[in-house]
Amino acid sequence: MNHSAQQSLDSAVSEREIPVARTLRKVLLATGIGHFVEWFDFGLYGTLAAIIGLQFFHAETPAVALLSSFAVFGAGFVMRPLGGLYFGSLGDRIGRRKVLATVILLTSGATFVMGLLPTFPQIGIAATVLLVITRLVQGFAAGGESAGATTFLAEYAPVARRGYFTCWIDNVGFMAFVAGSGLVFLLTAFLGEAAMTDWGWRIPFLIAGPLGWVGLYLRKHLEDSPEFLAAQKSGNTEAAPLHAAVTKAWGALFFCVGFVVIKAVGHWTLQTFMPSYLSTEMHFSKLDSYAITTLGLFGIAVMVPFMGYLSDKFGRKPLMLAGCAGFILFTYPAMMVMANGDMLSAILAMLLLGAFIAAFDGACSAAMAELFPTSIRYGGMAIAYNLAVAFFGGITPWFSAYLMTATGNPFSPALYVMGAALITFLTVLRARETAGLPLRR
C-alpha cells in the first residue's frame, strides 16, 4: 500500500473513531457529574449526622441524638426499593436518559430544601417531621440513580473495557463524598465548630440546588444508550419489565443482591458511620475526624479506576473475592489501630479498608450489569441493588451505633462488616465469570 493510500485509510479510521471517543467522554462526563451531584447530596446527611441530631431531635445526650439522626438516615433507605421499582421499570420502558434526568432533579431539590428547614428549637417536632419527609424523597429518587447510571455506562462501554468504564460510577461517588466531607472540613476550620453547629451546616445543602441544575442540563442533552435503542428498534423490550425480572431472572437477582451486601455495608461504614465514630468513640476532634475521612475516601477514589482496569484484565471474581477477604481479615484490627488516637495511624487504617472496597467496586458495577439482559437490566438491577442497600446498608450507621451501645465494645461494628463480607464472598464463589463477554440481549 502506498503512502497516500495509507494516509487515506488512517484518516477514515480516525473519522470513525473520534466520534466514538467523543461520545464516550460525553457520556462519562454527563453520567459522572449527575452521579456526583446525587451522592454529594445524599452523603452530606451522613457526614453531618452528629450536628443534624442536635438540630432536629430533642435528646438528653449527644449519643441519643446521633442514634436518632442515623435512624432518619435509615428511613431514607426504606424508600429506595420503591424508587428502584418505579424508576427501574420506567427506565426499561421509556429509556435510561429521561429517567436519570428526573432522578437528579428530585434529589437535588430535596437536599436544597433540607438546608432551609427550621430546627427543633424553632418549631418543635414539626422540624423532625419535615426532615423525615425530605429524607424519604431523597431515598425514593436515589433508588433510580446507581442502577440507572451503571446500566447507561455499561451499555455504552466497549466490551474489553467495561469494568474500567463502569467503575467510574464508584470513583465519582467517592469523589462526591470527598467533596462533601472536604467542604464540611473547610467550613468547620473557617467558621469554627460552634458556628458550624449553629448555622454553617446549612451551606453544603444549599449548594445542591445549582449543582442539580448543571447535572440535569448535561443528562437532558445525551442520547440514550445504543443497547436500549437497538432493543427498542427491534421490539425486544418488555411491557412489564419488573414482572419479567421477578419471574424470569431469579438467579440474576439472587447474585446481584449477594454482590451488593458488602458493597452497601462497606460504603456506608466508611462514608457515613466513620466520621461520627471517630469523633464520638475514638475521641478525635470533629475537624480531625473530617480530615481522616476525607483523605481515606480520596484514596479509595484514586484506587477504583486501577481496580476496574484489573477486573478487565484478570476477571471480576478475583477482585471481588480479594476485597471480601480483606474485610473479613482486617476490619477488626483496623478499628483497633484507630483507637490508638494517632491521626496518621487512623488515616492508614482507613486507607487499608478503602483498598478492599476499591478492589470490590472496581469489578462489581460491571459484574452486576452483566447479569441481566437489556430488556430488564435497569429494573432488575434496581430491584436487587436497592433491596440489598436498604436492608444491609441503610441500617449500617444505626446498627453499628446500637452494637456499641448494647455490647460496650467500641470495635463491635467490625463484626457486622465482616459478616456482610462473608455473605458476599460465598455468593461470588458461586457466580460465573462474565468479564470479556458481550452483554446479554
Taking the sheet with the most strands, its summary is: none
* Second-tier CATH architecture: Up-down Bundle
Q: Report the top-level CATH class.
A: Mainly Alpha
Proportion of β residues? under 5%
N→C terminal distance: 40 Å
Descriptive report:
The chain is mainly α and 441 residues long. It has one domain (27-430): MFS general substrate transporter like domains (Growth Hormone, Chain: A, Up-down Bundle), CATH 1.20.1250. It is built from 20 helices and no strands. It has helices spanning 3-47, 49-56, 62-78, 80-94, 96-114, 120-123, 125-142, 145-156, 162-191, 193-200, 202-220, 226-234, 241-248, 250-280, 286-314, 316-338, 343-369, 377-393, 396-407, 413-430. The chain is globular and about 60 Å long. It starts with a helix and ends in an 11-residue tail after the last helix.
Could you give the topology of this structure?
Elements lengths: L2 H45 L1 H8 L5 H17 L1 H15 L1 H19 L5 H4 L1 H18 L2 H12 L5 H30 L1 H8 L1 H19 L5 H9 L6 H8 L1 H31 L5 H29 L1 H23 L4 H27 L7 H17 L2 H12 L5 H18 L11
Helix pairs in contact: 1-5, 1-8, 1-9, 1-11, 1-14, 2-3, 3-7, 3-18, 3-19, 4-5, 4-7, 4-18, 5-7, 5-8, 5-11, 8-9, 8-18, 9-10, 9-15, 9-17, 13-18, 14-15, 14-17, 14-18, 14-19, 14-20, 15-16, 15-17, 16-17, 16-20
